[in-house]
From TrEMBL:
One Pfam assignment: AsnA
Stated name of the protein: Aspartate--ammonia ligase
Family: Belongs to the class-II aminoacyl-tRNA synthetase family. AsnA subfamily.
Keywords: Amino-acid biosynthesis, Asparagine biosynthesis, ATP-binding, Cytoplasm, Ligase, Nucleotide-binding
Signal peptide residue numbers: none
InterPro entries in UniProt: aa-tRNA-synth_II, aa-tRNA-synth_II/BPL/LPL, AsnA
Pathway: Amino-acid biosynthesis; L-asparagine biosynthesis; L-asparagine from L-aspartate (ammonia route): step 1/1
HAMAP family according to UniProt: AsnA
Record field: catalytic activity: L-aspartate + NH4(+) + ATP = L-asparagine + AMP + diphosphate + H(+)
Xref: SUPFAM superfamilies: Class II aaRS and biotin synthetases
Length: 336
């Protein structure tokens, strides 16, 4: 029960019917705004992949993918994707995209090992996007430029929602603040990584925390990242302060993707150099794939944020413990 945050005097401004209208309003506007900012084309993407392809996102390396056997293929095993972080880079080449173009897709995943709370669910829905960049654009300035474009789409969506719904006020700051995970640790050395995120998000309103995945000076990681898609020196998270729950809310994770050197270095640090022999990773080493930048943006997260909901279960259908459903209902939080 301690995983459920109950905001004082909370009540949803929208009933269930109008919430569904609001969800569609947010999603329709935001994906159009994002596509315009990054020059993206919507594509069709897989729900499952073969484990031996190396295409699945292994997250922190401990989460178990949902697997099943395919009857007509001699019960060959397939995995529900954790995300499409790697598949998108492969798809850009296969689908014939060129420099300056990009794709996005609706990604649905099941993360069976997720610890659920107000903002986490075992069901994950996000927009996965990826754009082709030049090798010489693999730098911090390119990353920041892309972040500002994504943030602009978020700002435009909030402004639109504030016009459409009287109860919504604009709370995102004009500009997003940039800081590295090491700078953040230096600023708050006595706090945990999550406490540092909360402090900087509360102070700045919106922040992009850069360079996530490698070890900090303290010997700890700010957060885990798979070693074979983001370049840990050129990635980060968009985090905003969410006053409804008084929390730091991550809306997006993104980065410039690994080249062959970054891939080998990070596989070594992660203790899994053998992954370089998988088809996707081998294609990176052999420079057979384009240089890209990409990320994921939580669909339910931004619906929750822009509709000012207290629980992610108010904007998506998932499974929750009975006691959580009961306690939420007692406090005006109706889980779908």
């Amino acid at each position: 029960m301690d995983q459920l945050i109950i905001p004082e005097n909370y009540h949803s401004a929208l009933n269930l019917h109008d919430t569904q209208v609001g969800i569609k309003t947010v999603k329709d506007f935001f994906q159009k705004a994002l596509s315009e900012q990054l020059n993206l084309l919507r594509v069709t993407a897989p729900l499952f992949v073969q484990p031996q392809s190396g295409l699945n996102d292994n997250l922190n390396g401990v989460e178990r993918p949902v697997t099943f056997g395919i009857k007509e293929q001699d019960d060959e095993e397939a995995e529900i994707v954790h995300s499409l972080a790697k598949w998108k880079r492969y798809a850009l080449q296969k689908y014939g995209f060129i420099y300056g173009e990009g794709l996005y897709t609706d990604m649905n995943a099941i993360r069976r090992d997720e610890d659920t709370d107000n903002i986490h669910s075992i069901f994950v829905d996000q927009w996965d996007w990826e754009i082709i960049i030049d090798r010489h654009e693999r730098n911090i300035n390119t990353l920041k430029e892309i972040v500002r474009k994504v943030y602009k789409a978020l700002k435009k969506t909030e402004k639109y929602m504030a016009i459409e719904y009287d109860y919504i006020e604009e709370i995102l700051p004009k500009e997003i603040f940039f800081i590295t995970s090491q700078e953040l640790e230096d600023l708050y050395p006595d706090l945990t990584a999550k406490e540092r995120e909360y402090r900087i998000a509360r102070d700045k309103g919106a922040v992009f925390i850069m360079q996530i995945g490698d070890y900090l000076a303290s010997g700890q990681k700010h957060d885990g990242r798979a070693p074979d898609y983001d370049d840990w020196s050129l990635n980060g998270d968009i985090i905003v302060y969410y006053p409804v729950l008084d929390i730091a809310l991550e809306l997006s994770s993104m980065g410039i993707r690994v080249d062959e050197k970054a891939l080998m270095r990070q596989l070594e640090i992660a203790g899994c150099p053998e992954r370089a022999q998988l088809p996707f990773q081998k294609a990176i080493v052999r420079r057979m794939l384009p240089y890209t930048a990409g990320g994921g943006i939580g669909q339910s997260r931004i619906c929750m944020f822009f509709l000012r909901k207290a629980h992610i279960g108010e904007v998506q259908c998932s499974l929750w413990p009975p006691e959580i459903i009961e306690e939420a209902a007692k406090n005006g939080i109706t889980l779908l």
